[in-house]
Fold:
Amino acid sequence: MNIEEFNYDLPEHLIAQTPLKNRTASRLLILDKDTGNIEHKHFYDIKDYLKEGDVLVINDTKVIPARLIGTKKETQATIELLLLKEKENDTWECLSRPFKRLKVGTEISFGNDQLVAEVIEKKTEGIVLVKMKYKGIFLEILDALGQMPLPPYIHQKLKEKDRYNTVYAKNIGSAAAPTAGLHFTKELLEELKEKKVQIATVTLHVGLGTFRPVETENILEHHMHSEYYELNEENAKILENARLNHKRIIAVGTTSTRTLETIMTKYQKFVPCSGNTDIFIYPGYTFKAIDCLITNFHLPKSTLMMLVCALAGREKIFKAYDEAIQNEYRFFSFGDAMFIKTEKPAK
Structure:
């Protein structure tokens, strides 16, 4: 399967640079994956498409200000670290730039030594393991020194850090936001509950696996990095009841999707569990957990583009993307949304 099969041309002015003031004011393209029918709505209309008994699955991970810019102690050269995954004893797996300038033993200073990162291991693909040295509370220091790790296609500075988190973000640990969830407000979630739509929560800490670009011509040669996920007992029960009673399971975002598909692949049912997943979903994959998906518009040639093509079919997705471009939808992290729906649960 060639990477070019998932490529498309996007006018640069359609890449959203800032979030809308009102989260629910984003546009919403409705794609019926069974018929290919397309509708154009706004995100607040999503409540008209969800019904009693549906289970909406959200990812409650919280993005930390994981982008740190400091200097090498010995040369004062500028070094950037993106914190990806916390290990143990103040050790972090980080994406580094420039990778070549670092060696084991290198110390990087942030904020006049408020925080010092010592490289203790060099891996591949720009990844290093660092030991953090500081006095005080790490997350407070990170909040003062770090920046929100916005994607490289966003060139404007984010005025409010919280706008790169969902309103239900709780579990700290992500290096990027599960952006489909950025469209929800607490009020909209309450309206859905009033309609007797159940809300289930999973946690997947977004790391390199989600946003690493595909650099191989043959997508089957792409290596997905693993990300930590968790499903507790209460939410496992909600999901398993829905599955057994043939109710629709609607994932908010590709991260929720990958979590649920990982669990169903491993256990054939929803059970309380945690672990790491490197699941790679592309056309030909048989979905076992979700029926519908709320998602943003994804980068060309990305693993996320492959996932939505796997769910709805490449032809239908590309037709929907063409319509979105013609209608000047806003694309990517701060952009508009798509609801890929079916009326009949597959389970």
Q: What stands out?
A: The chain has a mean pLDDT of 95. The chain is about 20% helix and 30% strand. The two ends are 28 Å apart (CA to CA).
